[in-house]
Structure prediction request, 381 residues.
Amino acid sequence: MEKTPSAPPIEKVPQSEENELDQYDYELPERLIAQTPLPDRAAARMMVVDRASGKISHSRVRDILSFLRPEDALVLNDTKVLPARLLGERVETGGRWEGLFLQCDPRGLWEIMSKTRGKLRPGEKILLRDSEGSGVKRYLQVEARTEAKTLIVKPLLDEGEDSFSFLDRVGWVPIPPYIRDGLMKPSDREDYQTVYARTPGAVAAPTAGLHFTEELLDEIRDMGVAVCPVTLHVGAGTFKPISVSKLSEHHMHSEFATISEKVVATLEERRARGGRIVAVGTTSARTLESASNLLDDGTVDSTGLNDKKLRPFSGSTNLFIRPPYRFKSVDAMLTNFHLPKSTLVIMIRTFGGDELIKRAYQEAIAEDYRFYSYGDAMLIL
Prediction:
């Protein structure tokens, strides 16, 4: 296997500074990890958590209209998941190879993560397993290695073909490892994509959005709610576990996000007349909060403790939302149930209230809710 640099040793935490990360752990029976979505996306269960009263109730996603108001705005992440997982073998050795597409530059070269036995050299070719089963042989050629230990490769395209059509033919849906050990089924191409996906670039789905159907969105618009798109391309870093005990030492991955001037104006207008900004998923929330904490140098203030306002934004964000972060532009959130000790469960507990969300997760387990990407939802009001 290609070697990756050893992680730096974790310093021992004094007893008075008990491991912060352990506070975000919980035990989940394996049977509650959803392996497939429901046939009807909107039929998923939806736990409703009211922060003001501390009350927890149970509903269905299709009944979300009962909890929305006509003056509200619903914010969706319109990123589109790429078939980013690549499987194949090294032409020279026949050794197994696996990769993950990260990005394509203007020259048509790809940056990918790579896993194989031994070290790939510039000039080597990789024969890809065709995800469509056509039997046509497609290749990548290794060009270079980056300082971050990723590979730069050149897809060997047919005449008139571009990188993304090539990727569509050879790539596999990068479903998470806790779903069938990461093995894609043909149905995942549609199931692991929101119905409103428009902007290609993600390597993981904004999973709270998987619950919506076109019919449900039409009903939401018909009641007067503004449905507003933002974009955050979920990156490979979303799979990176936290490896430090103190949250302040965790370096969050950067992801590209954008929110338009038109959407900002709509959200300001809705709030001015008493409406709420309802974020669908942690990625929509992260985009909104990033655009609400922009400093003059273009970086994002990770504390949220400033007097900045929501404004148009297009760029990279490495915002890690954790206590004592103060939310500015999210009034309510629809989200799935997240992995223990993850940045996402930390964000949700920061937003919803630590003890209340801990209690909600305990109740979800007791009530046999379905967890993670293909699982049920939680609406935090």
